[in-house]
Amino acid sequence: MMSGRGIRGAAAALLVAPVLLVAAGCSDNDTSPSGAVSKAASAASSAASRGGDVVASATAKAKEELDRIKGGVNAKGDIALGDVTKDGDRLTVPVTATNSSGSQASYAVQVNFRDSSGNLLDTVVVTVDDVDKGKSEKATARSNRNLTGDVRADVGRALRH
Questions:
Q1: Cα distance between residue 13 and residue 90, in whole Å
Q2: Are 82 and 96 in contact (CB under 8 A)?
Q3: pLDDT tens digits, 8-39
Q4: CA 49, 116, 74 angle in degrees (round to 5)?
Q5: What is the pLDDT of residues 87-132, one digit of tens each?
Q6: What count of other Cβ atoms lies within 10 Å of the Cβ of residue 103?
Q7: Which of 54, 84, 110, 132 lies 20 to 30 Å (CA to CA) from residue 39?
Q8: How far apart are CA 123 and CA 153, in angstroms?
Q9: CB 59 within 8 A of CB 114
Q10: CA distances from 123 to 13, 39, 89 (A)
Q11: Does pTM surpass 0.85?
Q12: Does residue 4 carry a pLDDT above 70?
């Protein structure tokens, strides 16, 4: 898992170019080009910090939800994800749980949304309840916030209980 500093650094890199372009197009009568770049870098750093805080909060919430499950068994192998698609202002991904146990079970699945470089952008927990033995059930994971660009999804953790 990426540290808060790594997330903020990745977010800063993604945000610096657009902010610099906006800053270059805006000018104050008293601002030199280097002053505009300095303000843009400061704004990017601030935005990256807030973005990192959002991801850290989502990660903490996902961990808390999964930690509440007592007696859960690692079931990552029972989970398949479909393609990430846009649904309004959020991204969604279909989650399929195939129960490989000998009795009915429910699943809690942590779905991570990552950019093309593997940086964590968001994470959510989706549940798939009452899956009969040997059967499959579907659910949909929905990002907590608007994500853009080439976003991929992976299973962070999956518990069968």
A1: 22
A2: yes
A3: 344 444 433 333 333 333 434 444 333 333 33
A4: 90
A5: 999 999 999 999 999 999 999 999 999 999 999 999 999 999 999 9
A6: 7
A7: 54
A8: 9
A9: no
A10: 20, 31, 16
A11: no
A12: no
Count the Cβ atoms, other than its own, within 10 Å of residue 33. Answer: 10
Pair 10, 56: CB distance under 8 Å? no
Query: How many CA atoms within 13 Å lie on the side-chain side of 45?
Result: 6
Task: Report CA 20 to chain centroid distance, whole Å.
Answer: 25
Q: How many residues can be counted in the chain?
A: 161
Find out whether 20 and 37 touch, Cβ atoms under 8 Å. yes
Looking up tokens 């939800």, which residue turns up? 65
Contact 115, 74 (CB under 8 A): no
Quick one: pLDDT at residue 51? 53
> Tokens 């809690």, residue?
108
Give the tokens for residue 20. 């610099």
Pairing type for strands 152-160 and 85-87 reads unpaired
